[in-house]
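PROTEIN DESIGN WORKSHEET
SECTION A - STRUCTURE
LENGTH: 507
TOKENS:
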């Protein structure tokens, strides 16, 4: 009997950018009596069903975007006689669906790190429960990933989590509802230990796979102080102190390490934090800009963001600390108008963001937006191929609409075409070459060009296009670009690298 862990994907590129961390964490949560799990990441290659034998246990992790492929795999491996266990955000929200559509014998809800061993033991004994509640475990129970199981030569970046949960409450995001609003921060020992292990193996680019790397803003501290809330103030100060301690230890790792994370825009007003990030080799951050107008920010409950000139000032502040911004913008908000697309593009250029993504408003389960949409417009939208539009992730990929939320002045197709137009302009050769001035030397600039084109092929052309031929062409291009790009990110292994201790010593 073998344990398998599968990350489903309807597109495979041969090489992937970021390691899907959950696969390697659940591998660590698998007791040694079952042997090392067989890991299949379908963003690299599709599952070979012949690897599954009767009595094997197959764990499939899904988010809304890959649920349909996950269900297809679940039914297939169940038909081969395997025990099927689903987990991940989507299965947590829709456990019945995973059983009905994906052939799940069992569903693990919430954090799997601890409860996975129980689910395995029950499957091995032939009597799995229909559901296991993993809940939200404390940070000291988060398991370090089994990086020894990484397939060599396949990934560009490692991924290490430092904090789970986000105190904000954006309307389009499910993180604060699934991972909670209380930040659960890992001890720096655990984080640094994993980073060192990855660097020993030749990974020098690492994504800090956090919900929000900046869980305590200066405003939060001010507010708690004003309210005289001593307990909260103490918690916030301790959380912030631990962030600085972690960054101080990351700063003492080899100089060629490069980290990338996700962060809220309030950090732009915290130069002490940005400086600590710079010293810690954190060179880039995804920032949810979402909208460039005050009305747009109100649409998504993101009043802590800025618009207009203040937005430009804040985004440029990152560049002053050597931080590259991947700005994330949403199109299709109720307050958007045709002019919003050009205005957003112009703002992205003026703010000097290094990369940008332009996504169309999609109601994802677990969000405030989804509930409103499900109870209103989705009811009128009817069904496609017999599947209600309110369950859009179950509609076959080729038939799936690209825009779900009816807009007061623009058609779905207009939003899609204008969004595609903004991607085209932001990632035109001329624009990329102009932006590439942020890296030194011609070689560096060419690498920047390759990476920008890869990013665009992987994320824009495979996601927005309504034309399946264009999607396949983009996937082929991405596969071709991915292999040479991977070489740009890796370095010679450092098998003897020591773990720096707190206080300036090395272990
Ligand atoms: S979008 Fe970002 S800031 Fe908003 S709740 Fe989600 S993780 Fe937090």
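SECTION B - SEQUENCE
RESIDUE ASSIGNMENT:
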């Amino acid at each position: 009997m073998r344990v398998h862990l599968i990350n489903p994907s309807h597109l495979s590129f041969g090489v992937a950018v970021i390691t899907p961390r959950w696969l390697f964490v659940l591998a660590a949560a698998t007791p040694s009596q079952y042997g090392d799990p067989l890991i299949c990441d379908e963003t690299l290659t599709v599952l070979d069903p012949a690897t599954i034998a009767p009595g094997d246990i197959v764990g499939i992790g899904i988010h809304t975007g890959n649920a349909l492929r996950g269900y297809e795999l679940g039914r297939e491996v169940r038909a081969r006689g395997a025990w099927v266990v689903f987990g991940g955000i989507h299965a947590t929200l829709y456990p019945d669906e995973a059983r009905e559509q994906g052939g799940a014998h069992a569903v693990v809800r919430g954090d799997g790190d601890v409860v996975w061993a129980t689910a395995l033991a029950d499957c091995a004994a032939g009597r799995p429960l229909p559901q296991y509640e993993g809940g939200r475990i404390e940070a000291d129970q988060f398991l370090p990933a089994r990086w020894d199981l990484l397939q060599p030569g396949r990934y560009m970046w490692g991924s290490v989590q430092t904090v789970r949960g986000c105190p904000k409450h954006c309307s389009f995001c499910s993180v604060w509802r699934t991972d909670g609003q209380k930040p659960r921060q890992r001890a720096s020992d655990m984080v640094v230990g994993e980073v060192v292990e990855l660097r020993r193996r030749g990974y020098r680019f690492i994504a800090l796979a956090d919900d929000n790397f900046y869980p305590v803003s200066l405003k939060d501290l001010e507010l708690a102080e004003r309210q005289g809330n001593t307990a909260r103030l103490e918690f916030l100060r301790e959380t912030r102190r631990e962030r600085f301690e972690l960054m101080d230890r990351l700063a003492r790792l080899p100089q060629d390490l490069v980290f990338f994370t996700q962060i809220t825009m309030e950090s732009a007003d915290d130069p002490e934090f940005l400086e600590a990030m710079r010293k810690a080799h954190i060179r880039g951050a995804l920032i949810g800009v979402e909208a460039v107008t005050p009305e747009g920010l109100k649409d998504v409950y993101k009043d802590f963001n800025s618009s207009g000139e203040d937005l430009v000032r804040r985004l440029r502040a990152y560049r002053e600390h050597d931080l590259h911004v991947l700005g994330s913008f949403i199109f299709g908000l109720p307050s958007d108008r045709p002019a919003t697309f050009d205005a957003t593009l112009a703002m992205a250029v003026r703010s000097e963001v290094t990369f940008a993504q332009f996504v169309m408003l999609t109601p994802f389960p677990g969000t405030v937006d989804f509930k409103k949409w499900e109870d209103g417009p989705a009811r009128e939208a009817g069904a496609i191929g017999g599947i209600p539009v309110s369950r859009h992730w179950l509609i076959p990929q080729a038939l799936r609409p690209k825009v779900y939320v009816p807009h007061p002045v623009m058609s779905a197709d207009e939003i899609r075409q204008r969004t595609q137009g903004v991607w085209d302009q932001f990632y035109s050769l001329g624009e990329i070459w102009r932006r590439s001035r942020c890296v030194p030397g011609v070689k560096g600039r060419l690498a920047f060009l390759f990476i920008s084109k890869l990013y665009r092929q992987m994320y824009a052309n495979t996601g927005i296009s309504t034309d399946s031929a264009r999607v396949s062409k983009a996937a082929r291009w991405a596969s071709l670009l991915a292999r040479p790009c991977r070489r740009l990110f890796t370095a010679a292994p450092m098998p003897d690298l020591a773990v720096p201790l707190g206080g300036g010593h090395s272990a």
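SECTION C - NOTES
The chain is about 40% helix and 15% strand.
The chain has a mean pLDDT of 91.
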